[in-house]
Write a structure and sequence with these properties.
OB fold (Dihydrolipoamide Acetyltransferase, E2P); Rossmann fold; Ribonucleotide Reductase Protein R1, domain 1; five-stranded mixed beta barrel; 39% helix; binds guanosine-5'-diphosphate; binds zinc ion
Length: 361
């Protein structure tokens, strides 16, 4: 229990307050999801933490899994006076959301965390800067709606920090870049200063680059103060689970969910954002639908040949573009099947309705 935490500390805003007004009238209380464990949610409210389950209505409204609550979500709760589990009656609109492809059904978008303001893309300076991977993470970050900030960690192991930053800069454009080390502490206060009161951050990046180490440095106090929370496994036994959204004593919130760690490239208009230079060149291609592959008069290919566009960057663009097209194609197919199904169901219902009406006559 951290009763000293206010809604503003949790990221509540005037806009959210205004949007919530009708729900407040209905006797619902706002809260933010800090942990999901076997479909039970731990929700922080102005009065402290409660356990909650989703109301049947929320489940029904849920189109796919998108409308179900995730860590970071603001929800409207019906508080149970008897001390039993509370009910989540509504998931409030998300300002940003991180998604990935759900395992097995690769065209279903699964949201893993919501309402993240800044996403730190962490890479290590112990190895050569992997510009292509960095570009991919940027695509994911931009697509979420959160503001990306690149963090080059393990500065203590860097051979030539300035060169590494320049290399990263070539891939990231005007995205801010911070250089840190959890060993020497360099740059950590810059990271920390971005965690203003009520602002939510998350960290993504390859494993082993120091994300957990940075989180520990950022939330050290909060974690000591709150410790582990108790959850339930499938058989209803108590288990220990780590809080996935932590409020810092110094202000700011950090989201660290298992889902965030397995983020995959999902899709993106963000592709165009990240590859703005390629998109700019593409406007000069002879054909509107140029795939920048073997088409004549391709401005992108000419730029690569002339050395004006880095060929590895060009390859990376083609790869991401291919993945994106594949995802979109599959989704289109799914949508088509679903709309056919919907039409069938509707027709059947209409026929039934007509027959009933005829019989009543
Ligand atoms: P994660 O997989 O991204 O969460 O990475 P971890 O935080 O688990 O760190 C991976 C390893 O790198 C651990 O052994 C850390 O102690 C080490 N590490 C993290 N940050 C730094 C750093 O700034 N400098 C050095 N030299 N090692 C670091
Ligand atoms: Zn072209």
């Amino acid at each position: 229990m951290t009763p000293s935490v206010t809604l503003a500390d949790l990221g509540w805003s005037d806009e959210r307050e205004a949007a919530f007004a009708p729900l407040a009238v209905a006797g619902l209380v706002p809260g933010r999801v800090v942990l999901e464990h076997n479909h039970v949610f731990r929700v922080m409210t102005a009065e402290g933490e409660v356990l909650a389950e989703t109301a049947g209505a929320v489940k029904h409204k849920a189109d796919g899994r998108q409308a179900l609550p995730v860590v970071g979500d603001w929800v409207a709760l019906r508080i149970d006076g008897t001390g039993a589990r509370c009910q989540i009656r509504e998931v409030l609109p998300r300002t940003t959301r991180f998604s990935r492809k759900a395992a097995g059904r690769d065209t279903v978008e699964q949201i893993v965390a919501a309402n993240i303001d800044i996403v730190f893309i962490v890479f290590g300076l112990d190895t050569h800067v992997k510009a292509r991977a960095l570009e991919r993470y940027l695509v994911v970050a931009r697509h979420s709606g959160a503001r990306p900030v690149v963090v080059l960690n393990k500065a203590d192991l860097a051979d030539d920090t300035a060169a590494a930053v320049a290399e990263a800069r070539a891939a990231t454009g005007d995205t801010p870049i911070l250089v840190t080390s959890t060993q020497t502490g360099v740059g950590l206060d810059q990271v920390s200063s971005l965690l203003a009161r009520g602002r939510t951050v998350a960290l993504i990046g390859p494993s082993g680059v120091g994300k957990s180490s940075i989180v520990n440095q950022l939330v050290g106090h909060a974690e000591l103060a709150t410790g582990e929370v108790r959850g339930w496994d499938q058989r209803g036994r108590h288990t220990s689970v780590h809080r996935q959204l932590v409020v810092r004593e110094e202000g700011g919130l950090v989201i660290d969910t298992p889902g965030m760690r397995e983020l995959q490239l999902w899709e993106g208009d963000a592709v165009a954002d990240t590859f703005g230079d390629v998109a700019g060149l593409a406007e000069q291609c002879r054909f509107r639908d140029c795939r920048h592959d073997r088409e004549p008069g391709c401005a992108v290919k000419s730029a690569v040949d002339a050395g004006a566009l880095d060929s590895a960057r060009y390859e990376s663009y083609l790869q991401i573009q291919a993945v994106k097209e594949d995802v979109l194609k599959k989704r289109e197919h799914r949508a088509l099947t679903e709309s056919k199904h919907t039409a069938k169901v509707m027709n059947r219902a209409m026929r039934k309705l007509c027959t009933e009406r005829d019989q009543q006559r």
